[in-house]
Every structure is written in C-alpha cells, then in structure tokens.
C-alpha cells in the first residue's frame, strides 16, 4: 500500500478550497431574523441577529421572552448545573432567552448546555466588532455529533455592541424582554414554494452524510405530497469542484475528477490507494441529476426521491455495490428510461465540458438574495438559505412558512410541524371540558384560537372566551352547551335546532337555559312535569 505524502494532501485540499468558487464572485449571505427589544425603553428597538445553522429556528413564527445573562459560566462552555443555574421558566412566566458570550468553545456546545438547563432560546454576543456571521456546527467527531443532533431550540448571533447594551440593562436591574421573529426569514409571495437541496451521493463521509441520508429517507413522503399536489417545485443540486489546470494530469486529479479535471469530488475514504475514488462520486452525482431530468420530462419529478432513497439502501459503498450495475437495477425498477439517462450523462472521459455539471457549477455561485453554496448539505427555500437542523419537522416549518398566508396545504398543519402550544393551558383558548372540544389549533406559525367545526356543526364566538354551537345539529354536541334534564320518563332541553345560538328554557320552564331551567308553578301545581 502506498503512503500518501503531505504534499499530496496539500494539493488535494488546495484545489478543493481554491476552486470552490471564483474569488471575485464569492458571496456568503448571512440569513437573519428580526430581534425586537420591547423593554426597557432605554434600548427599545429592532436589531439584526444571524440565525444559527443548528437547532430548530421557528420559521413562520415568533417568540417573546425574558433575557437572562448568567452570573457564572457566561460563555456556556460548561454544564450549568455545575453552577446550580437553571433557566427553566416558572408556570405563567415568559420563556427564558439566555445571553452568552462568544469564545472558548463551539457555538453549538454553548446552545446545548443552555438547552439542558431549560433555556428556550440562546443569543450569543460577538466578542469583536464585525459584521454578523453564521454560527455553524463544528466538524463532527463522535462526541459533538451526539449533542448537535439533539439541539432543538433556536439560537442567533448578535453584534458585540448590542450584546453590551443587553448586559448593561440586565446588570442595572432592568427586565429585558425581546421578541424573536422568524416570520420574514423566508419570503412568502404566493401559493407555491420553490426549494432546492444541495446534496451528495457519497455515503461514507461521516456524520453529515449519515444525517443527509436519513433526512432524504424521512422527508421523501412529504416532498412527494407537496410536488404531486403542485404546492412546491423541488430541484436537487450537487456541488462539484475543478482541478487547477497545472495538476490535471496528476494522480490525485485523475482519481477524483472526470472530463479531464473539470468536475471533481473528494475521495470518499480520504485514501487514494483503496476503496472508491472521487470520480465515482461525481459520476453517481451526475446520474442522479439525470434521473431527475428524465423523471421531470415525464411529469414525475418526485421519482428522484424514490431513486435516491432506493440507491442508498440497495447500493451502499460499504457493501461494494456503489456502481453502475446496482444503479441501473434501481432505475429499471422505477420504470425510467436507462438509455435517456445515459445520453444525459455523456462521456466522462471526454476532454470537453459536460452541460449538466457545468450548469451545477454555475448554480453554486450566489444570485440575488441567495449566497454562494459552500456547505454540504444546503437547503434553499424561496431563494433563502435555510439555517438549522436538517430534520423533517424543522424543514417542513421552513417550507410551510414560504407559502402566502392562508394558502398552505394540509400537510403544513400536520402534527410534525405543530408548535404544540395547545398542550399548555389550552393555549389560552376556549375549551368545553365536558365535551372535550377546544378552539385551540396548533399550526407551524403558532397557535390560533378559532371556534371549531365538530361533526358538521360550526361553533361561533371569539375563540378565546366563548364558542357556541350554531345551526342544525348543534344539539347533538353536548346538547349545544344548554341545560337538559330527564323527568318522569320525559327529556327536557333548552337547546333547539332552529338555527338559534342561544339556550332558551322549554315551555313551562324558566331560567337562564344554560345552567338551570326550573318548572313553573300554576295554581299550586307544577307545570312542565
């Protein structure tokens, strides 16, 4: 076995980093959410904050909370229970938003430690005066991967100057309340969302590849529902690099590139002497792009999700099945035209450009409000790069927030994207405990209090304090909320299905019709019995 020299490694890293995007065109856009200080008056106003690229930002929603700056462990690099600190909110109190200082440990570790101590969100104050940057996850090893996967709260980086204002107000005894708003983090112009996933067919690149593969499997069903219903337009993309012309004949470039160094991918095992080569990954990436193009021509673009998922399961690298033979078997099982896909792929040995991969390289460069794609995986929704955990529920929130309000499809109101605000105190909405009927409805944008429709009967009211059954059939639902009683084998009710909403005691009875109806007495005898 040949030993890879340090100069070879330097060459590899050099062309990967230098050729990602032309330096004159490089543009990285920091995705922001609005942060509004509501008290104290001395710092009241709106400030920018940069969404962290982990955890679950509440796309489409907002969060009001009380900012706390811990007296100890102010960088959040240790567990807070070591200092006896808890951020858990008491019943009825605002959520706790923890302010921490940048430095000494990974951003993600700070947020994880705060989450374990009960924080609802984290703000990290920069330690230098600079433009906002995106807090990203570290290159995962076994220990960091575990906690990164379990971060579920949102976080954001704020500028040093704003952080100092918050600390000064807190130290001065002021109650600092802020509102974090993600409603404009994703544009929502109409009733269709356009989104894209920058992905990779390599299944041996560690934790991030495992996370990506798991996401594709989990998200496939929702993606296909959105696409088949015409609610969304999805496009897959694949990052490729080029090899500097001076090195196109080197062993490294030949093993990692196709079309004479024009399109390259890193060696899957990071070992040129064994296993699969980078060019194998480029060829499979190209095949997956062509699967999408051919499926799109047949008006069934959602078949891409089936191919990619089946290929992951049937053709893994570790089983030495990551090859054309296995890929063709998957294509055939899905009823796609193999010849069309092969024509789309072209000749990987040709000393010429491949139109499909050239289009991908051009697309990597940022346009409009979208920055350059430099991170794998990257999700883009309505031309804005998604920040947060690549997990089905979190991504669905981001996609659903991209619809114009009231045009969201039913899949956006599923349990996986609900905020679960109705679980605590019924979300502050009306509820009939006897009939187990509530006006609280969880949506991805947050809870709403709307009088419900139950078994064809519409309830009417403000949704907060009152909801009353109305119209035909209302007496079937908990007797319309009216008084009812059985006497001497006869049933009496203050509810009537005549279209009225009010409860009125029946003939021979008097009372409020809701809690009581008493029989009238006429000439010493009871009327209505």
TrEMBL record:
Belongs to the VSR (BP-80) family. Residues 193-400 form the Vacuolar sorting receptor thioredoxin-like domain. It is a single-pass type I membrane protein. Residues 1-26 form the signal peptide. GO terms for biological process: protein targeting to vacuole. InterPro entries: PA_dom_sf (IPR046450), PA_domain (IPR003137), VSR_TRX (IPR056858). Residues 349-369 are annotated as: Disordered. It is found in: Endomembrane system; Golgi apparatus membrane. The gene is 11412722. Residues 64-166 form the PA domain. Keywords: Calcium, Disulfide bond, EGF-like domain, Glycoprotein, Golgi apparatus, Membrane, Protein transport, Receptor, Repeat, Signal, Transmembrane, Transmembrane helix, Transport. Coiled coil: none annotated. This is Vacuolar-sorting receptor-like protein. GO terms for cellular component: Golgi membrane. Its main location: membrane.
